[in-house]
Design a protein that fits this description.
Helix content is about 5%, strand content about 25%. With about 240 residues, it is mainly β.
């Protein structure tokens, strides 16, 4: 099985791998990064569902999957993601975690197409946790749709033309550190496993019995028991 992530906007979305926070990713990207050390010459990669993971990753020869892009990037690199549908293998987080970003958390970046923002966690970011800013008026199908997201603390900007339901702030859920298995990002710089997978971390995974469990709504992503949990992880996944 796979998780499906779909970007409505056919243009290119931009993600820059940060130097400090391993999971702080602006501009609605879906790359989950690990490694905190920068390197001298930053690289740029392009991803397109019609590309190939054996390609160079240039705009003329893009990669096909987000997984391959994540395997290649180092801190400070930039990934441009063409609009389309991407598959993520189960075992990956259902959504995205952005934590302790010096700018802000999830940012629509002037999007003209509207995007789906499902099952994400924003934690202790300096600016807004979710900022749906657009420099044109969005309407109809071209609005941002937010479901099953967690903002801790709750800092939401430019809600305007957005359909926000079943998020922590809509449900009156005020997350605390007790709602997570761990609120510590210690271990992010640990080495990968022998098979290349990231180290096992409990950072921001929902605690069984906490406020985030079974509070979401079905958006087509895998979930356990009665309803999806809020945030980037499913309890027990």
């Amino acid at each position: 099985m796979n998780c499906i992530i779909h970007f409505k906007d056919p243009g290119l979305l931009k993600a820059t791998k940060p130097h400090r926070s391993a999971k702080a990713i602006p501009w609605n990207a879906v790359i989950l990064c690990a490694g905190l050390c920068g390197h001298v010459e930053a690289a740029t990669y392009f991803v397109d569902p019609k590309g190939s993971d054996s390609a160079a990753g240039t705009i003329q020869q893009p990669l096909a999957t987000l997984h391959e892009a994540n395997e290649r990037v180092l801190a400070g690199d930039t990934v441009y993601i063409r609009g389309g549908t991407y598959l993520l293998p189960l075992g990956q987080p259902v959504g995205i975690t952005i934590s302790k970003n010096k700018a802000q958390g999830f940012y629509a970046n002037h999007s003209h197409g509207g995007s789906d923002w499902f099952n994400n966690t924003a934690f202790e970011n300096r600016g807004a946790d979710f900022d749906m800013y657009s420099d044109i008026e969005l309407s109809g199908e071209k609005i941002h749709k937010l479901r099953n997201n967690v903002a801790d603390p709750t800092k939401i900007r430019n809600q305007g033309a957005s359909d926000m339901q079943y998020n922590s702030w809509n449900l009156g859920v005020i997350p605390t550190k007790k709602d997570f298995v761990s609120a510590s990002d210690e271990g992010f710089i640990a080495p990968r496993k022998p098979d290349g997978m990231l180290p096992d971390l409990n950072f921001l995974k929902p605690r069984p019995g906490g406020q985030l469990i079974d509070k979401g709504t079905d958006v087509g992503l895998p979930f356990h028991k009665d309803a999806p949990d809020l945030g980037a992880y499913e309890c027990g996944s």
